[in-house]
């Protein structure tokens, strides 16, 4: 566990995770760049369900705090972070005004901040994630974010209510064995695995958002292909560019369905822990993760049809080129044969001998 510049606490999560960040993250995101799809998820539509908790504070309930998720890359190599010394000096703690929080870092290229605001998350990405060599794999063009809120109330049951996470009482675990000793924590120790479960679902949603954005950009780049084919009979791009487009689509399929942790399945970690699985599923369903993953798959299927057309065009282009080469070779061979065997052929076909050259006496 590391203490970062703004006095938050870093928790590195094992192999169950995944998401990523990019160093342009200090650039503010304009209102035009914000994606409206998140505002239409069931989580946002059911926000009214959290009003009873928000409107009726109790002596046992903490203030409402932020859970902020940031994705900066396709994946993180967490071993690089575990083996790297603490990269942040203690002297800089103005970013979050000395407030403490916890950060879960996932191998899918994202991290989830509990009790910290967006500015602090960006600071962490620049000063911690950005300082570990080789940690980020496939940095995103722009970071993806997701934000929720939570309260701590020991007399309530841990759950997601509307758009508010409540950290309270949690049943004992079945098979997961907690560490014998914990580092000091900002939030209740008994809710550690609940926070992890909520965090993993949030990180998966944010990682999926990054994939959605990249796929939309890919489809936009291919949008003129049908028009070009209909108008000119040609794809309007070179062979190398076509091959690159094929590779991009294969990469999308791999990222969505073939990675160790895809977007459709519940991680193995929760198979023996139904309560933790419930926490994970509650956020996943609220953020439409499965529906969005299915939508991405449908878009990939459409793109695969375009890929089939591209592959056919490449094959036809290659075949046509080979035919031209063969025709040219045959023509050259015919010309050589005529030059070499022309007199004999003339005598055979006409019956007239070719005038012999005068011999030099």
UniProtKB/TrEMBL annotation:
Question: Any transmembrane segments, and where?
Answer: none
Where do the record's region annotations for Disordered lie? 26-60
InterPro entries (UniProt xref): DUF155, RMD1/Sad1-interacting
Pfam families in UniProt:
DUF155 (PF02582)
- What biological-process GO terms show up in the record? positive regulation of mitochondrial translation
Gene Ontology, cellular component aspect: mitochondrion
The family assignment reads: Belongs to the RMD1/sif2 family.
Specify the protein name: DUF155 domain-containing protein
What is the native source organism of this protein? Answer: Roridomyces roridus
């Amino acid at each position: 566990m590391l203490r970062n510049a703004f006095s938050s606490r870093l928790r590195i999560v094992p192999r169950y995770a995944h998401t990523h960040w990019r160093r342009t993250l200090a650039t503010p995101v304009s209102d035009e760049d914000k994606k409206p799809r998140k505002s239409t998820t069931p989580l946002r539509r059911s926000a009214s369900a959290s009003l009873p908790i928000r409107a009726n504070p109790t002596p046992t309930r903490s203030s409402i705090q932020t859970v902020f998720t940031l994705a900066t890359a396709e994946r993180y190599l967490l071993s690089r972070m575990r083996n790297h010394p603490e990269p942040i000096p203690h002297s800089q703690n103005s970013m979050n005004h000395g407030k403490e929080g916890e950060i879960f870092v996932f191998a899918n290229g994202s991290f989830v901040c509990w009790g910290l605001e967006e500015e602090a998350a960006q600071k962490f990405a620049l000063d911690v994630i950005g300082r570990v060599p080789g940690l980020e794999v496939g940095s995103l063009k722009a970071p993806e974010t997701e934000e929720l809120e939570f309260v701590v109330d020991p007399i309530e049951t841990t759950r997601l209510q509307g758009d508010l996470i409540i950290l309270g009482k949690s049943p004992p675990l079945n098979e997961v064995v907690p560490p014998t000793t914990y580092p000091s924590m900002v939030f209740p120790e008994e809710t550690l695995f609940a926070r992890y479960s909520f965090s993993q679902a949030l990180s998966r949603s944010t990682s999926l958002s990054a994939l959605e954005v990249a796929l939309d950009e890919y489809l936009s780049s291919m949008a003129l292909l049908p028009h070009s084919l209909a108008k000119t009979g040609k794809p309007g791009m070179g062979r190398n560019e076509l091959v690159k487009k094929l590779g991009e689509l294969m990469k999308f399929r791999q990222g969505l369905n073939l990675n160790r942790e895809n977007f459709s399945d519940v991680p193995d970690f929760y198979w023996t822990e139904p309560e933790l699985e419930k926490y994970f599923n509650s956020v996943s369903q609220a953020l439409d993760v499965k529906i969005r993953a299915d939508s991405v798959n449908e878009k990939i299927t459409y793109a695969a049809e375009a890929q089939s057309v591209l592959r056919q065009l490449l094959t036809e282009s290659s075949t046509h080129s080979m035919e031209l080469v063969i025709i040219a070779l045959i023509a050259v061979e015919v010309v050589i044969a005529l030059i070499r065997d022309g007199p004999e052929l003339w005598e055979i076909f006409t019956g007239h001998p070719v005038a012999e050259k005068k011999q030099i006496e």
